[in-house]
Amino acid sequence: MDIPVLHRLALNESPYPPLPSVRRAMQRAVAQAHRYPQFHPDDLTERIAAWCQVTSDRVMVGSGSVGVALQLLRTVVRPGDAVAYGWRTFDAYPLLATMVGAHPVPVPLSPDGHQDLGALLAALDHRTRVVVLCNPHNPTGSLITADILSAFLRQVPRHVTVLLDEAYVEFARHSALPDTHALLDSHPNLLVLRTFSKAYGLAALRVGYGLGVPDLVARIRRQQLPFGINAVATAAVKASLRAGSELRRRVDAVVAERERLRHGLLDLGWRVHPSHANSLWLHAPDPVDEGAMALTAAGVQARHYPGEGLRVTIGSREANDAVVAALASVGRPEASDRRAPNAPADEAVSAYLRVSG
Ligand code: PMP
Question: Which top CATH class is 20-243?
Answer without folding.
Answer: alpha beta
